[in-house]
What we know:
Blueprint: H1 2-7, H2 12-16, E1 25-30, H3 31-36, E2 51-55, E3 66-70, H4 84-93, E4 100-102, H5 104-107, H6 115-134, E5 136-139, H7 148-159, H8 172-183, H9 186-193, H10 200-218, H11 223-235, E6 241-245, E7 251-255, E8 260-261
Parallel strand pairs: 3-4, 3-5
Antiparallel strand pairs: 1-2, 1-4, 6-7, 7-8
Helix pairs in contact: 6-11, 7-8, 7-10, 8-9, 8-10
Organism: Apiospora aurea
Protein name: Heterokaryon incompatibility domain-containing protein
Amino acid sequence: MVREALESYTDMDEFFRATPMGVMYWFFQRREPFLAQKTMTKWSRDRIDDYVLLPATPGFVTRTECFFVSHFWHSSQDPDPGGKYLQLMQHDLEQQPWSFIWVDWSCVPQHPRSPEEEAYFTRVLQTMSAIIRNSGFMYFYPPFEPRLWILYEVAEQALTSVGVLPETPDYQPFIEHVREMERVSVRPTLERHGYRCTYDGDRDFLVSWLELLVLLKRLSIYVDDIRRMLDYQTWSPTLIAILHQTWNGQLVQIRRFEGVVE
């Protein structure tokens, strides 16, 4: 079915223009090109053979097969000049069994983008929470800077997982701030530590995602239930409300466009 759906597109621009009502596909870089590169490779139509397309539907992106890379951007022109952090990640990841990896610089069209690429880029942003939630998580951060994207990525991984990652010095400030959001709330924590985004528009949806994650966790809903609700929200972006009965019998409703959880 996946192959037939992809073969129905006549060219890349038609694929990028595909209606959001259809199945979303993510570019994942294959293991071999990732481990062979000397610096992070910018996404390009000329290197399509470096990728697989995985459908944004349950069961295709899994933690046994896929990794998500969380990293700082050191420059808008190149997030990792010289490949310093890439080499650290390659060293760790080549020791582990996996097949595909998602790095924003390498797996989604970057500036300058055509209108068709911009439409696809927007849909990736709207659904990338499911990539983080369903993939293994890899990171290497420089000395702490209050980057909101990094905090969100750490929160998405930590609050939708049963196990915990080792609290390395570069990871520790972010996970401590995730716990602070659980104790206090999201916005005061962001203000206290000066979290910022390069693009103001990103801040609005990142804060809303963080608030939903923290609220579900504070309601003591099981992680499996949180994952199911959030995945369903990703797979069904037009639903006004999501109704879910948890393992312990709670009935939870998310009215997404009102920002209400009952």
